[in-house]
Amino acid sequence: MIEAGMMEAGRIFAAVRRQALIYLVAVGLAFAVLALLVALMGFDVLKAFRYLLTASFKSTFGFQETIKKTVPLIFATYAFSIPFMIKFFNIGGWGQMMIGGTAAAAAGLTLAPLGLPAWILMPLLIVIGTASGGLFGMAAGGLKSRWDINPIISTIMLNFVAQHFLNFVATAKPFKDPAEGHPITMPLPAEGTLGFLGGFPVSFIFAIAAVVFVSFFLKRTRLGFEIRAVGHNQLAAETYGIPFTRAILTSFFIGGALAGLGGTLETINIHGKLIEGFAKTSGAQYGIFGILTSLVVGGNPIGVPFAAFFMSVMLVGADSLQRTMRIPVELVFLAQGIIVLFIVTVRESMNAKKR
Length: 355
Hints:
With 355 residues, the chain is mainly α. It has two domains: 1-43 and 336-355; 59-326, ABC transporter involved in vitamin B12 uptake, BtuC. The protein is 75% helix and 2% strand. The strands form two sheets. Strands 1-2 form a two-stranded antiparallel ribbon. A two-stranded antiparallel ribbon has the order 3-4. Strand 1 and strand 2 form a beta hairpin.
């Protein structure tokens, strides 16, 4: 028994070492390319890397901003990762976030005159936003299962639907803030907003709960087992009685619901109102960063919070680079894309050698 335990521990250690090697090689190569580009643009490479990698930890404000970016990025990453487990791409995490935040804001402003207490209004807005994102995501799954419409196409198109729906609500007369020229609603009632703990958003607690939920759902529930089974081999899963339609609808609903929850929390916690562009960071969609983050961990839901934090550190560093050295944030976006490219390439190369 002891020998078997030591062999199992050895296999785990070898797997961890292999994954660590993949990330170190990929990040090292990506940073080498970034250093070359920074040097060619005439900037101090060492100073640029110092700002990029330490901005999140040099001050309390920097770390708080990193957590603010990590939370929605975790939800956006799960929106892609869970459908990805059955080999489908959900490109609509951005749209599902917008739908969730918009639905929650519209419900909050509609119910405001009723004067509902926080213990009723707050959970109600969270449920409405989460369910709206889930149903919006499930629409893409339904189109695939019923008419074989590629989810890549449908989720991209649904992003535009969500964007225009947000603009409609944010500019509609019952909701629009008349003092604003940008599509922004009036503030939500205090009973419908979350606060901060020590400068950190309460939404961070929801993000931790989401990590626990996803881990439990995928490993300890029947629906989670069905999703994993279909992802490993759809034909074999259907042969043993696992319906493909249920798996795809469930995966897209869960992914969309988590994105909707992320959008809801941005609206009721970070902004306290609906703002066009709330589902973006540094000018880019959270949905795109969610896809990159998911690819970094190979769709593994357990690695999502760690990868999301790393990506957020780079995003905060990118903002710092633009402020202090006038280096465009797009250069860091390029580096993040290169990191993903190298990680996928190195991972597949090592897997091919292992086979």
